[in-house]
Amino acid sequence: MGVDMEMSCDERVLKEMCSETRKDYSLSLLSLATKRRIIGGSPLAFGEGGIKERIKNVLNFKKPSRVVTTVSVALVLVLSIGFAVNRASVNTLPSADDVLSVARTYSLENPTDKQKLERLASITLYKNGTAELATPLISSYLLPACTYSFEENELLIYANIEMPESESAYGVNNGDVIARFAVADDGALVFESATVPLFADAGARYVLAPMTLDDLNALSTLRTPYVGDNSAVGKIIYALPQIDNEHTQQYFSIGDDYGTGRVPFTLTIYYESINAEVNDTRNITVTPENAALLFALIDNLEEVSFAFRNTPSDGELDTSVYISRVSYSKEKVTEYLESIGLTWEDFLNDWVGSIEKMYAVPPVSLDLEAAVSDAILEVNKNSYLLGDLATEAHTTLATVEQGDTVTVYLMALYQVYRYSGGGFYDISGDHIPVAITFDKGLNGGYTMTEYWIPRDGSYYIPSIREKFPPDICEDAIDTQKYICAHIISSYEQAVEYGKVDTNYQIASLIETICSSPVEASNPRAYIKAHSIEFRELVYYGRYTLDYCFSLFEQGSQTGLEGHIMAAACGDIMTVLGEKITEGNFDTGQDWYNAQSASE
């Protein structure tokens, strides 16, 4: 084998030489064989054996013809295309050495000019398990190579010293823990301690450095025509922007994992939590931009799915523990691009301009209420936003200004609707207390700097009490106090956006409620039997009031329908804070007449 390698190297050199140089090259080989110079105890140029055969091969060497070269290249391309469309079952992402970007870089949060020079600047964690700590220039201590691991809520940095005789030079042994960082709730790394000079302050926070436009622009060099090219696709996935501070990309597969029927043009990317269990996946925001990048960079990709698990994997892909997923078709992403004024041709013709447009910073809001609404929609946007309607409604509990910042404490609803059969239904959302902090610009605009939500589980209420002013804590904890009013507002947005025929929808709901139980005489029994429909009747808010009042004005609403309409209208008016005349009424018509008389 060694002789074959040596001859191959000879031929590679000769391809670049003219015939006159072959004699000199042969003499060099002969000289090398007779002098037998050895470097570092190892022979130079593989084995240096078979010099006679190598010299004969040099003198007889002929450059391959263009025809042979062309045919060879064509054959390689054909075989490559064949391999590219083969399905890959499970793939781990490539090592950091094979791609443009590293796994994660955490930089010192808000450093002063002095700290930039005198303190640990950043921690970079590579996907192959190695770590790099950027110590300051003033440090005379040379760090050993490092590895890392996450243990519960800590990041541990280990010395990785291959040669035992070097341990004394570093002052630590191979495998020693040389630094500890706590993992904060927001994913930041908080310095705790070190056994070597790191020049890091206790409590210093290191936050995930966002991708720059230069990083995104560099992605264009990774384009591949085939989703079946595991190596190329792996590099693209690895170089994508991170989705949040809690999850990392670990595996990907090419094929029909979720029964979409698009084999072999479907890509699934698997995400897992970085360290401790993540109980709440509602804040995972796989933005449409990542999907757009994948479709722009992989020519024959037709669908991509993002799957999530809430615990770290044990080194093997187990699809049964991935608790949620979101999917994008190319058609849906095309709609998204059109909504922001882009096409696939734009990415081909002007990658830099398209990236800048897709990641353009939204305009600064000049009105605080508008800034709050924009922040709720922006922070919560996810894949359901494609083709569906995202809505928000909120109640401000308190506003606290301090210098150039203002924090708004509120109860916020985020709700996403999908349209079907002339109506709509909710597909995702949440209703939680939120604290949003803005910077006030010189032009009077507001730029969001923090979007706080409560912690999960047993930490939920304590975290609210710690964050919110004491006088509004109870309102922040009581999520039911504002829910109905918020959903009524959300429904109004959905009706207007979808041009929904509310009269038809409301009439259908009333008909369903009145359909059973036929043997009951108490209207409340019908409402109880159809609580979901009755609740939706209330959620239509003023649309329900307008519909029912128009029928009441016609008179003769003395049957079951009149009772149902009166009950719904009464609930709506209570939620909206409107005055209601109380009393015992025999019919729904009597109830309406009493309300009209009191106006």
Characterization of the model:
The protein is of the alpha+beta class and 599 residues long. The protein has 5 domains: 2-63; 104-208; 213-357, no CATH class; 361-497; 501-597, no CATH class. Helices cover 38% and strands 23% of the residues. It is built from 22 helices and 19 strands. The strands form 4 sheets. An 8-stranded antiparallel barrel has the order 4-5-6-7-8-9-10-11. It has a 5-stranded mixed beta sheet with strand order 3-12-13-14-15. A hairpin with a 2-residue loop joins strand 7 and strand 8 (154-159). The protein starts with a helix and ends with a helix.
The residue ranges in which pLDDT falls below 50 over 5 or more consecutive positions are 1-6, 15-21, 27-49, 61-89, 93-102, 279-286
Main pleated sheet: 8 strands, antiparallel, barrel
Structural class: alpha+beta
Report how far the terminal alpha carbons are from each other: 101 Å
Radius of gyration: 33 Å
Strand content: 15-25%
Shape: elongated
How many distinct beta strands? 19
- Mean pLDDT across every amino acid position: 79
Task: Quickly describe the structure.
This protein has 599 residues and is an alpha+beta fold.
Topology:
Elements: H1 2-14, H2 21-35, E1 38-39, E2 42-43, H3 51-59, H4 66-84, E3 88-92, E4 104-108, H5 113-118, E5 122-125, E6 130-134, E7 146-151, E8 154-159, H6 167-170, E9 177-183, E10 189-194, E11 205-208, H7 213-218, H8 230-239, E12 247-254, E13 266-273, H9 288-297, E14 303-309, E15 324-329, H10 330-339, H11 344-349, H12 351-358, H13 368-380, E16 389-402, E17 405-420, E18 423-440, E19 446-452, H14 460-467, H15 473-477, H16 480-498, H17 502-513, H18 523-529, H19 531-539, H20 542-554, H21 560-575, H22 588-597
Parallel strand pairs: 13-14
Antiparallel strand pairs: 1-2, 3-12, 4-5, 4-11, 5-6, 6-7, 7-8, 8-9, 9-10, 10-11, 12-13, 14-15, 16-17, 17-18, 18-19
